[in-house]
Design a protein that fits this description.
mainly alpha; 2 helices; about 85% helix; about 0% strand; SH3 domain-binding glutamic acid-rich-like protein 3
């Protein structure tokens, strides 16, 4: 999750970008979970 840390420190506070990023992370996590399932 180091990418998340880098992203959060480089963001200028755009809430929309943050929400899009969180959504992408959730989708990635879901895909990884489905691969394991």
């Amino acid at each position: 999750m180091s990418g998340l840390r880098v992203y959060s420190t480089s963001v200028t506070g755009s809430r929309e970008d943050y929400e899009l990023f969180v959504e992408a992370v959730e989708q990635d996590t879901l895909q990884e979970f489905l691969k394991l399932a």
